[in-house]
Amino acid sequence: MNTKENRILSFAYKILILGAAIGMIIHLLLKYFNVNLKDQAFFFSAMVALFAPAIAAVITGMFFIKREWKYSAGSFLLAMLIFSAYILNL
Amino acid sequence: MLEPTFVNFLVSMLFGILTGVVCPVFGIGGGAFMVPFLILFAGLEMKNAVAVSLLCVVGLSSLATAFNLEKCLVRVKLGISMAFFAISGAILSAYAADYMPEKILMIIFPFLLFFISFSMFFRSEKKAENQTGGKHSYFDENCRKEVSYDIKNFKTVSFLSFFGGGLAGLFGIGGGIVQVPLINLLAKAPIKVAAATSSFIVSMSACAAASVFFRKGFIVREIATPMFLGVIIGSFIGVRILHKSRSEKIRKIFAILLFLAAVKIFLKALSL
Known about the structure:
Distance between the termini of chain B: 16 Å
Shape of chain B: globular
Distance between the termini of chain A: 36 Å
Helix content of chain B: over 70%
Largest sheet of chain B: 2 strands, antiparallel
Radius of gyration of chain B: 18 Å
Largest sheet of chain A: none
Structural class of chain A: mainly alpha
Number of domains of chain B: 1
Strand content of chain B: under 5%
Shape of chain A: elongated
Order of helices and strands of chain A: HHH
Largest interface: A-B, 41 and 41 residues
Oligomer: heterodimer
Number of domains of chain A: 1
Number of helices of chain A: 3
Structural class of chain B: mainly alpha
Strand content of chain A: under 5%
Helix content of chain A: over 70%
């Protein structure tokens, strides 16, 4: 991957993890003021944190899509594996 | 379990910050520190401790990956290939952990900690190795020179990373203890590239295992929230002091603390 693609992927990682952290802070604030939505706030921020690498894998797959289909398919497969780990609650 | 008081909130957060600061400096994931803390001080069951640790490891390794990507240290192609096997291992072991008795997990875990503490204690700081005419390169900030290298044994390394992922699901540690030597010794990449690519893989395998635990309701939000926030704050500090610190003595102190924690967990497991 070239420098520009590295920077985009890095930015995506940072935004997602910081988004999750902000979600956690909102969860704490809602908890402090005893608002009913506090559980949903935790759920969504945990989901953002957990799926940040999966979303990064999708972005990586899109970078490789025109150049090397093998790695592109591999990246999408990774994202699918992560999502399926959550969805297939065996 | 820790009562959800303000003091305990602060303790969890401070521990998260400490973990976030020291882990990038030592080049290890946070799980090896977080799981013993959660078992011994927060009083969590092994499975809950693993679940909370994995969530924090995802945050820590994702941020580390973000910073490493900026420095072009991550070999993404190798990472994708290894992550496929690591994720498979992580998912399988996360399901296995759910069915394994608590006592067995707690007896095996200290041996893993013994190994990590020994490798931390006796590790020597290597200078960047240069392979002339390598296909890939990065700029080493310490040596102030361009280091070139080639990736070897691509398929073998990818397959063996399955076992690194397995550690994530079973014990809540990232699996860097397996991935870094694999990339460094077998794939012949420099240690900095190995650590950076390992973070990329660990972020993926830990999130797959954590999502299994999250779905099963093992994550304790009263402790996970402050620790996650602490880890994020700490890792921002950690990556900034990464290249400035002389961490030899601190690393040895932490290795000894980890060894003591392992002994205590082992004794606790025997009394279960």
